[in-house]
Structure formats: structure tokens, C-alpha cells
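hi! just following up on the protien thing from before. the input was this:
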Amino acid sequence: KIQRATRRLHDLSVTTMIKLSFAIIIAAATIKISTPLLLLSDLPTPSFIIDTQALRRHVVGSPPIKTEKQDASIIFAPSIRCPKNELLLHPSILRPDNNNDHDASNNNEDGKSTTIIDCEFQFTEGQSAIGYLHSSVVRGRDDAVAGEDDPISSFLAEIDLDPTLCGGNAQLVLGLNNHHVGGYYWARSAGAGSSMEAPGVWYGPSGGGVEKGSDDDSENVPVKNKRGLLRWLNEEGFTACNSNDGKRSEWVNFLRKGDTVQFVPGDGQHALLQFRDRFGKQSDDGRMDDTSIRVFGISSQGRPMGSEPEVVCEWR
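and the predicted 3d structure came back as:
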């Protein structure tokens, strides 16, 4: 009896081990491997950035958007229409496998959002901006060239944001991923603080901004794909240009090649149209192809305070 019981126990142990092994194999085969987050610093520059959380707040008071999931974590990515120029942009979700779901109940058969909101991209001081211009630093103060960047005392940086993309009308702000404003200041670059201006900084074209027309056209025409410059408005620099509530623009002194900065455009609708015309491609029938025009949506939902926002969608 003891031997029979021992064999039975052994058989049960073997059976249990086999079942457990199969369970482990099945579990391993069904583990969801998450893809790396796409962050703001991963994007090409220049690009136009839309804060999807600020966009959601923008439509508060508008007719409600019907969704099956009324969850704050849902990516808010409707189609956007610019009333000024009738530009219509449709979203596509870049990471449908992440924790933030996109409600597809408002999409048509082509996958385009049937929810369309009008957005003028107006900026109100003290509130989060909806649209930003995202740019990379090409040269910092240490790279200034005498005779080319004079006066050297006011030179801050050369960036890859062509002023013609925004009509030369944009304000440098603390930004969405500013690593130069550490300690107390990093908290101010989250939420509404991200669109807080860096006072005393001028932004404009490098080396002019117009070029001579051809022999058949004597008029000057804007130069495209030029770079922009950042300078102190006062040659005494941040000591004369800063506000009294903190060194909100001293950090610009420390910009180096490869850093990224953001601007709030004076006319976001105009800037979007310029991005569409600059980076979009036209098909033979005159319509714009479905190519990237560098208009991306970001969100800080679920991200640690002060960290880089995640890129969640793209508009085309």
C-alpha cells in the first residue's frame, strides 16, 4: 500500500509539473512586449506641437464629443479645422498599444476622425498654450563667430526654426522639456508654466530673411529653409532683460548645440498652413498626399511631474 501510494504521489507530481510547464510556456507566449515611448526629444525639428490636454480643455463648453469611454486617459485627438484658412487636419494615433486608448467610435470608414473642432490657437497669458513650435539649437554662445554674429555680447543661439514658418512672430518660452531650468524652475515648465515667456529674448532671421529676385522678377522674396537667431534685446543680457519674479530667461545663456527649445507662435493657424505647405507633398491632381507635415500631439498624462511629454499622435 505504501509503495502504491508513493507511485500515485509521484505520478501526480509529474502530471502537475507538466501542466505547470505548459502554463509557463503559454504565459510566456502571450506576454505583451511594450514598445519604447516616443518622447518629444525624439521628434524631427522644426515641428509643430499640439498639447492634447490643453486642446481638450479648449473645447470645454463646446458640444460634448460622444465617446463610449469617458476616461481622462483617452487620447483626445479630433480632427482640427483652422477657421482662418479652412485648413483641415486629421489625426492618426502613433502608439495604439499604450495605456492611453484612443476612442475609434468617432472614426469613419477611412479611419479619419468624424469629430471636427475649430481651433484658432489663441494664447491667453497664464494658461497652457495649445500649439508650440519645436526647434533644435544649431549653435550656442560658445560657437559665435566674430564678424558674423556681431554684436557677440547679445548673441545667444542659432536654431533650425525658419522664421518664415511663423511669419517671424513667435515667443521663446520655458518650454515642454527644458533641462536647463532645474530645481524650482522645472516645476514652472510643467502645465501652464511651459508657455511662460522667456523675457528679453529676440527671435528673428539669421542673415536677413529676403533674397534678391531673379532677372525676371526684381522683387525680393522670402528665403525658405533659413535658420533663426536668438539674441538679448539688451546687450547687458539677462541682468537687464529678466523679470523680477525669477531668472526666467537666464537659462538661454547655456543653450548648446543639440538642445531643443519651444516657442508659442503669434498666429498658430498661419504656422500650421506653412508647415503643411513646406513639408507636405502634392499629388498630380493637386491634392496634398498623406505625408507627414510634422504636426504632432503630445501628452503628459501618466508621466512623472517635470518629465518629457509623450508623443501620442500626428495630424496630417
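The first helix runs from residue 2 to 29.
The first strand starts at residue 47 and ends at 51.
cheers
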